[in-house]
Amino acid sequence: MRSFIFVIFISIFLPSCFLDNDLDGGNQQEIPTEAYQVYHTSITGLSGLCFSRNANTFLAVSDKIGIFELSKEGVIVRKFPYSGSNDFEGITINPVTEDIYLADEGQMRVYQLSKDEKSLVTVTDVFIPNAVFNKGIEGLSFGNDTLYIVNQESPTLLMKYDLKTMKEVSRVKVEFAAYLSDIFYDDFDKTLWICDSEKKKIIHCDINGQVLGIQNIDYISKAEAIVVDRVAGLAWVGCDATGNLYRIKLTI
């Protein structure tokens, strides 16, 4: 009788254990499998995402190995010819002109990629008083001739840079976040989506940083890249620690 009870206990308990152990670190909770799908990209240091011009693929950056085009299932379509050793943390594109912009944390600089994809032109340097090394500009997104830039930590900042006047037009302290790790401008309703890799959350906010909604992503150990498709109700989030790409059903 005791053996029978023990077998029942194991059959109930073990699946829950395996589910937790399969998730990406952090304080885990059981997440319904239909809530997300995981694809492995084989990109180490995956730290920034944006849609490509036609939105059928993604552009992605690594802070270690360069610039890539990815399928929505995480398959590398191609590696860009640019071969510099930059600390790229963010990438975005003007879908009309196809100009590609990159955020370099190490140099605290935003670049534009040349049309032949082999060189960089400086757009602006980002000066943060009393900045902390390796906690600098971490996310970048284009919307309505504006670059939205986030500074990771100490302080957590949302900045707007006007590409017509070539000037920074605002910066605000973001109080809701601990670790700003990427940003996405949503043309659907002119709002922003931000990853916080420390709190393990996706935050939806207006263009001035006022929170509209928050979704937990406890199953991602180091969320550092985000794109959103509101029509499909989906977000794709890249994990810097594993190179995994998560396709997530939005609940906010």
What's the structural blueprint in terms of helices and strands?
Layout: H1 2-22, E1 36-40, E2 46-51, E3 58-62, E4 66-70, E5 76-79, E6 88-93, E7 100-104, E8 109-113, E9 120-125, E10 137-143, E11 146-151, E12 157-162, E13 167-173, E14 180-186, E15 191-196, E16 201-205, E17 211-216, E18 223-229, E19 234-239, E20 244-249
Antiparallel strand pairs: 1-20, 2-3, 3-4, 4-5, 6-7, 7-8, 8-9, 10-11, 11-12, 12-13, 14-15, 15-16, 16-17, 18-19, 19-20
**Major sheet description:** 4 strands, antiparallel
Tally of strands: 20
The average pLDDT is 88
Question: Helix count, per DSSP?
Answer: 1
What is the CA–CA distance across the termini? Answer: 49 Å
The rough form would be described as globular
> What is the string of SSEs from the N terminus onward?
HEEEEEEEEEEEEEEEEEEEE
Walk across the major sheet and give the strand order: 1-20-19-18
Low-pLDDT runs of 5+ residues are: 1-31
Beta-strand level of the residues, as a percent range? over 45%
SSE class: mainly beta
- Overall helicity: under 10%
* Radius of gyration over C-alpha positions, nearest whole angstrom: 19 Å
